[in-house]
Every structure is written in C-alpha cells, then in structure tokens.
Input
Amino acid sequence: FDSATPIMGHIHGSMLELQVAVDNAGLSATRLKVVQKTIKERWEYFHSAYHGAGFVLNPGFIDMEHISNASNMRYTRTVIGRLFHDAPEKATAARRQLTIFLNKEGMFALPEIWDDAKEMADYRWWQLYGADVPELQFVALHVLSKRGSASSAELNWSEFGFIWTKKRNRLKAAKATMLVRVHSNLRLLGKR
Output
C-alpha cells in the first residue's frame, strides 16, 4: 500500500479480497490459520477510521455486501465528525447525504454514473458527480485523495539523521525537532 497515488479508498477492499484469496488458496488448515492470523494482525496494526470511510465512499465498492456493516458506518460517521468538528450542521448534512449515496437516490440513481465508477479514479468520480451532495463530496474528496506513502516520514527521519549526528549528540530532542522543522521549511521555501 506504499504508493504515491491516492489509494485510501482501496485499502479496505483489497484486504477483503486478500482474505478471500487466502481462504480459497487450498492451504492446509494449520498454514491457513497462520496466514489468517498474520493478515488480521497487520490489519489491526494499521487500520484506521479513514480506511473504513474510504471503503464506504469508494463508488467502485457500492455493491459489496461489506460496505454498510456497523464498523464501516461508524468509521465513516467518525471521519465526518472530525472533518466538520466546528460545523455540526454540515456534519448532519453529510450524514444525510451519505444515505442518499448508499441508497442510490437522486443523482446517484442514474446507472451510467456507476459505469464511470469502474473506469475512473474514485476521487475524480466524486469531483464529477458529487456536486449534488456538497458536504459529502468534501468528505469523500478529503478521504479518497489521501496517499498511502511513507516517504514523508522517511524524509523526516533522514533530516533527523542529517542534523542529529555523532558530532552533535548533545542536542536535546526538542532542539533537534526544532532544527528539523526549520530545515524542512527552508527546503520547502527553496522549491518555490
């Protein structure tokens, strides 16, 4: 899942597909149990509310039976609440609009838009078809445009290694963090 492209809407679905593939792989009972345990541990380690919301809001998964299970819906409501923490009326509107999307009502009743969902990137689909549900469109674009890359964290650690060397090992953590922030911001300003 380490990718520079937006994949948040595909992680949950991919994990479900992986579980089905493993179940149908013809492994011995002992081996199957080990692999299933490993998948479950990995999923519990990195799973977040954004993964569940991405699964629910991805138009490519609209017909999957797992889309509206209790935990995915709870995760989606959690993300809506986080994004509209200062505007409860918009959160309420987004939750109402979610039912319109999931029940394929209004604009979402048109069959041709679901054909496009199979061909287009999920966040692009929301840009094109989400105007009738603006609050939910905001949530969907925010969630589905997230990338799954660790490169920013790796870059941060690299900058720490550049600043906090054996020669400068007396730096306190707060000072080193401040210097990394300054270094990062100077690098970003230099890209303008």
Notes: The CA atoms of residues 172 and 186 lie 21 Å apart. The mean pLDDT is 82. The radius of gyration is 21 Å. DSSP finds ten helices and no strands in the chain.
